[in-house]
Specification:
Blueprint (H helix, E strand, L loop, with lengths): L2 E6 L5 H15 L3 E6 L13 E5 L13 H8 L7 E8 L5 H12 L3 E2 L4 E4 L4 H14 L1
Parallel strand pairs: 1-2, 1-3, 3-4, 4-5, 4-6
Helix pairs in contact: 1-4
């Protein structure tokens, strides 16, 4: 059984709802899943999991949330080489630039993306929920 961490930050609940759908998909494939707010996760925990899904909405001028999520994620980057990960998040404006940049940064760090990242505008609709479940399945 694979161990999957789902680590997220959510200001409005949209990304939290996405995290729940990712967890549902991974559990459906038999994975042992831990859903953690980014304040509960540290770089020292990366090696405890087979795969990790990171979720963060777009903030400001299409960047990761800067006070809690981004510092946590940056501390994890050196441990992501060869690690299978997934990315997800919501946005309220823009065109997803924050996710494209984030994805490129992860690939540059040597992370292995389990599937395409999942983004949605505002609250996840049924299509976004299904894509989140598929992301979870690909991590399991």
């Amino acid at each position: 059984m694979s161990k999957v961490a789902i680590v997220y930050w959510s200001g409005t609940g949209n990304t939290e709802a996405m995290a729940a759908a990712v967890a549902e998909g991974a559990k459906g494939k038999g994975a042992e899943v831990s859903v953690l707010n980014c304040t509960e996760f540290t770089a020292d925990m990366v090696d405890m999991y087979d795969t990790i899904a990171f979720g963060c909405p777009s903030m400001g001028s299409e960047v990761l949330e800067e006070s809690e999520f981004e510092p946590m994620f940056t501390s994890c980057v050196p441990k992501l080489s060869g690690k299978k990960i997934g990315l997800f998040g919501s946005y309220g404006w823009g065109d997803g630039e924050w996710m494209r940049t984030w994805e490129e940064d992860c690939i540059s760090a040597g992370a292995v993306l389990a599937s395409e990242c999942v983004i949605c505008n505002e609250a996840p609709d049924s299509e976004a929920e299904e894509n989140c479940k598929k992301l979870g399945e690909s991590l399991a």
